[in-house]
Write a structure and sequence with these properties.
Strand content: under 5%
Distance between the termini: 55 Å
CATH architecture of the largest domain: Orthogonal Bundle
Oligomer: single chain
Helix content: over 70%
Order of helices and strands: HHHHHHHHHHH
Length: 203
């Protein structure tokens, strides 16, 4: 496990059930977990209240430390994935699980309906989109993203839209770093080709 010594000591203490270590762990990651929960709710659902953020914040911290830190013990620190990234991933997954359990949740990520997400792709696809109005850009990007293969679409969502680093995406998808860069190159090229074709149809 290639992580800083202080984090390694913190994990060992948590695994042993040391209350002080667990308290230090919560103090170190609490704000990051809260912000991750908040940002994930903002981008994935239209229906949330501040109480949801607070409840999920507590749920994430409990999940990390419950059952003798079962989820923390799964952290391996491989492929550049930091402890912070691992905790953040658990937080995101906790929110997603919560939303899936809610029948009234309007998940934007599943339908690719978040303008905030899609706008981040414009730097990659600037040329074919620059002459179009913003609403046209959003509609084209949504349609073209849905045309990608499932794994390519998931990669784009995780890396380009949610801002996860390549090592984090590698950890989540269970692929090699070389494969990740290959998927990135392929998926962005296919997306750009689809966008170019779509913009040509409007001329």
């Amino acid at each position: 496990m290639n992580i800083p010594e202080d984090e390694k000591d913190l994990l060992v203490g948590c695994f042993k059930g040391d209350r002080q270590a667990q308290s230090d762990f919560v103090a170190r990651f609490s704000n990051m977990v809260y912000n991750t929960v908040l940002n994930t709710l903002r981008t994935k659902t239209a229906n949330w209240q501040i109480q949801d953020v607070e409840d999920l914040h507590q749920t994430v911290l409990i999940r990390l430390l419950e059952r003798r830190c079962k989820r923390l013990r799964q952290f391996q620190g491989k492929n550049g994935c930091s402890l912070r990234s691992w905790v953040r991933m658990i937080a995101v997954h906790t929110v997603i699980d919560h939303l899936r359990s809610r029948k009234d949740a309007l998940t934007r990520a599943d339908t690719m309906d978040s303008s905030d997400y899609l706008l981040t792709l414009q730097s990659e696809l600037h040329d074919p989109l620059q002459m179009l109005e913003c609403t046209q850009q959003m509609e084209i990007l949504r349609r073209c993203l849905r045309s990608l293969m499932p794994r390519d679409r998931l990669f784009i969502k995780l890396h380009c839209l949610q801002g996860l680093a390549i090592p984090e995406v590698v950890e989540i998808l269970g692929i090699t770093e070389n494969n990740a860069y290959s998927i990135k190159h392929r998926s962005l090229n296919r997306l750009k080709t689809a966008v170019q074709a779509a913009t040509q149809e409007l001329k």
